[in-house]
Amino acid sequence: QVEVQVEEGIPLTAEEIKILQRVQQSLGADSAVSHRFPLGNNQTAVNRAFQDAVLLCKMINVAVPGTVDDRVLTLDTMTSQDQLENFNLMINSAIGIGVSRDQLISFQDLQLGNFPKLISFLTAINQIGLRAKTSLQQHPEIQNLMLEGEEFKDVVKLQPRDILKRWINFHLEKQSVPPIANLSNEISDSKAYRHLLSALFPEKFQTWNSELGIREAAEDVIEKTSEFKLPTVISAEDIIQGRETENLMFMGDLFHFKSGLKQVPLLRSVARTTSSENSGDDEDGTNEERGFKVWLNSLGIQVEDLSEDLRDGLVLLQMFDTIETGCVDWSKVNKSANNAYKKNRKLHNFHRGGKETFIFPGGNWWERYF
Asked: What are the backbone dihedrals phi and psi of residue 118, each rounded to the nearest 5 degrees, phi first?
């Protein structure tokens, strides 16, 4: 179990503790933030741990790897301005992975310790992570679960619970075990879990003690899966009571850890469909390009298309002037360049300012990009 520190304040509920345990399970081995754990056992201590938005940025990367570029995060000994920059990076990233407006948290919420809003925001990130872990993009082998007459676009629209239920029933059928109809009360006796684990890890879970009672069976499942160090911390009570949310997160982590399905390639046309359906990011470029876009937007510089918006150098000049105020002589900048010559002059100013402020390789290096 994840440890918590004892400190005065409003105590955490069992549900809140599980959400925070997931944070520590996910980030405890990250050397950049491991010293922040264990988290406190009350709202005040937890709010303090999340105030600078670093842990939230890290959890966004757990949900959708590569969203936030860690290199632009201020991790320790930061000013209020540093915290604000971390927050801007985090909130733009959250919007980018699909957190809805009503689930977002504000900078004021973090600074004043709006704990319910923090928990709601973490829950939203976890839900997006679950969808990502059960997507065709990350797991092309989900194609094995398609029903007769079904098309890829139909599978893309399936909710995680539907994919996970198909997955479990796929393995149950292989063992001539009746299918389950839901992920709540029908798994409360742990039989579905035990058959699933036997299918996924036959070398580890070939035999089960059939004499165990319901609680002992649930505890046995938890003990045997503890070695996998999955992000979700589930309890025997969660299984026995058929708590769907907790079981969904746990199954999603287990599926992501090992699906036990035949590996198949994801066709390019299917990849475009899944990317478009899941996030609309199919034309947003690589993770690094998206990371730069998020970072520029967090500086207050609006960028939609990295190659097009940077083409005339204006955004690059704005970037320099934001990082080091006054390094750009705006009196020499034509902000409405309407031909190639004027655009090239702006790039020349950018390159000259860049050499004075940072270290760039010589020559017209930007031509390789633009």
From this structure: -65, -45
From 182, 177, 46, select the one nearest 116 (Cα to Cα).
46
pLDDT confidence bin for 345, thresholds 50/70/90: low
Give the C-alpha distances (Å, rounded to integers) separating 107 from 100, 112, 131, 149, 301. 16, 9, 26, 48, 18
The structure's pTM equals 0.70
pLDDT at 102: 87
Q: Is 267 helix (H, G, I), strand (E, B) or coil?
A: coil
Q: 172, 192 in Cβ contact below 8 A?
A: yes
DSSP string, 280-327: S-TTS--HHHHHHHHHHHHTT---S-HHHHTTTSHHHHHHHHHHSTT-
pLDDT at site 66: 87
DSSP 74-96: --SS--HHHHHHHHHHHHHHHHH
Rounded to the nearest angstrom, the gap between the alpha carbon of residue 250 and the centroid of all alpha carbons in its chain is: 16
Dist. CA 72–CA 58, nearest whole Å: 12
Query: Would you put residue 98 in left (φ > 0), alpha (ψ -120 to 50) or beta?
Result: left
pLDDT digits (tens, 9 = 90+) for 31-74: 999 999 999 889 999 999 999 999 999 999 999 988 998 888 99
Go through the chain and tell me how many residues it has. Answer: 370
